[in-house]
Amino acid sequence: MATVGAVGGSQIDVQGLVSQLVAAERARPEAQIERDTGRVTTQISALGQLMGSLATFRSSLSSLQTVGTFSTRAVKSTNEDVITASVGGGAVPGSYDIDVESVAQAHQISSNPFAGGGTTVVGTGSLTLSMGGKSFTVAIEDGKATLADIRNKINSANDNVGVRATLVQGTTGTRLVLSSSTTGAANTIEVTQSGGNGGLAQLTYGTGNTANYTQVKEAQDAVIYIAGEKMTSASNTIDSAIDGLTLTVKRPTTEESGPATLNVTYDSSAVTTRVKSFVTAYNALVSQIAKLRSYDPATETAGPMLGDSLLTSIESELRRTVSGVVPGQAKGFETLAAIGITTQLDGSLGIDDAKLQKALGSNFESVGKLFGSEDGIARKLFAQIDGRLKTGGALDTRNKTLTDQQRAIEKRKDDLDVRMAAVAQNYLQQFTRLDTLLSQLQVTSSYLTQQIESLGNLNKASSR
Which residues are in the Flagellar hook-associated protein 2 N-terminal domain (predicted)? Predict the structure, then answer.
C-alpha cells in the first residue's frame, strides 16, 4: 500500500523525506542566525538604554552649566501690605528701607447729577476728551444726544485713548463718571466741547473749569523714598529703582508702620534643589550603567554590556570628572567633596546637607562657579556627554555598526530561505525520479510475477 504523500505511486514518502532533509540541513545555520539576532538585538537595546540615560542626564545639566543659574536671589518685604518685590538677575544682596509717600492713581471724575436719568437729552455738537497728551473726539447729533448715548459714544470710539465712561444712579439723579485707564499725574482727564446747541458745555472739565464735575480720585504718581532718595513713577510697578528688583507699591507707609524693608538674599533653597536634582540625575545614570555591566554569580547572568570598553570608558570619565579639582576656585571650593557631595562605594553620589548649606552660606558664588564656570563640573560633564551623543560620536558609530549587523543578519536569513528552497526543489526532483523508477520496477515485477505464474500453470496443465 502506498504511503500518504508518495509522488510516483511507490512506498516512498517523498515530501516527508524532503522536509526532513531540508530541516536537518537548515538547522545549524538557522540556529546561528537566531543566536546572532538575539545578540545584536540585545546590544542595540542596551545601547539605546545607555544613550537614553545619557541624554536624560545631559538635559539635567543644561541649567547648571552657567554661573548665572546659581546666581538666583530671593527678596522679602517686611510689610507686604505696603510694598512687595520680585527679583531678577543682577540684584545685589542687601537691605533697602523704603518709605511710600503715595501710590499711583488713575484720574476719575463724576459729573453733576442729571435728574432725568440716562435718557436726559444733554445737547449736540462734539466732545473732545484728552488724557496724557492724547485726545479723541465724539460727535453727538440730534436724536442720539442723551446721557446714555454720550456714554456709549465715548466707550465705542475707535481712537479712545483710555477714558472709560459709565452712568451711576443716585438719589439726586444720574451722573456720568469718567475714569482714566492709566495711572499717573500726567494722565488727567480733560473735556472740551464745540459746535452744536451748546448743551454739551455742562460736561466740560479742565484747568479752571471744574464746576461740572466732582473729582473722585486725583491723578497722581507713586512717590517713594529709597535710602532717603525720592523717586516718582506713573505706575505702581517700578523696575528702575533698584538693580534687579521690580517693586510693586500698594499703599503709603505711616508713622506707626515706619518704612518697609526689602531684604535681598541669595536663594539657597533654589540652588539646593538644583544641586540635589543634579545628584539624583547622576545616580540614575550610574544605576543604569551598573545594570548594563552587571554579573550575577548565583544565576551566572551577565549584563548586556559586561566588559564593553565603550561603557567602561564612559563610566571612568564620569567618575574622574565628579571627583576632579576645578582650577581657579576659592580655597575649600575646588571639589564637589568640599561642599558635601561625595562618591559612595557603589559609584553613586551622596550629599551631606549640613556641609552644603554651610558652603552656600559662606561663599555662595564659589558654589556656582564649581558647577558652571568654564572648567566647572556641570559644564565639563555636559561637554563630555554631548560629545558622546553627537552624530558621528562613539555611541552613534556603535549604533550604526549594530544596525548594519542587524541588516546583514536579515540578509543571511533571506539568503538561507532562498538556498533552502533550492535544496528542497533539488531533493524533490531526485526523489521524484527515484519514486518513478521504483514504480516502474514495481510494474515490471508484477508483470514478471504474472508471467511466471502463467508458465507454472501451463506446466501443471501439460503434466496431466
Answer: 10-107
Cα separation, 331 vs 321, in Å, equals 19
Task: Using the structure block, give the residue that is written with the C-alpha cell 579639582.
Answer: 325
Judged against a pLDDT cut of 70, whether residue 462 lies above it is answered with no
Q: Which domain holds residue 288?
A: 12-72+267-438
137: buried, middle or exposed (CB in 10 Å: 19+, 13-18, 0-12)? middle
In the chain, the percentage of residues whose pLDDT exceeds 90 is 57
235, 266, 297: which is the final residue of a domain?
266
The answer to whether residue 463 is domain-embedded is: no
Tell me whether residue 287 is in a domain.
yes
**Mean pLDDT confidence for 419-434:** 81
363 Cβ contact partners less than 8 Å away, ≥ 6 residues apart: 330, 332, 333
**pLDDT tens string 332-349:** 999 999 999 999 999 999
Q: Count up the domains in the chain and report the number.
A: 3
- Same domain for 19 and 98: no
Over residues 345-366, the pLDDT tens digits come to 999 999 999 999 999 988 888 9
Is residue 384 in a domain? yes
* Same domain for 88 and 231: yes
Instruction: Give the separation between CA 179 and CA 413, rounded to whole angstroms.
Output: 83
- Per the CB < 8 A criterion, the answer to whether 144 and 215 are in contact is no
Q: Is the pLDDT of residue 5 over 60?
A: no
**Average pLDDT score over the chain:** 89
In the predicted structure, residue 183 carries a pLDDT above the cut 90: yes
- What's the CA angle centered on 150, arms 149 and 154, to 5 degrees? 115
Q: Summarize the chain as % helix, strand, coil (round to 5).
A: 45, 25, 30
446 in a structural domain: no
Q: Are residues 306 and 242 in the same domain?
A: no
- Alpha-carbon distance 401 to 408, whole Å? 10
Distance CA 78, CA 100 (A): 13
Amino acid found at 50: L
DSSP 8: S
Domain match, 100 and 164 both: no
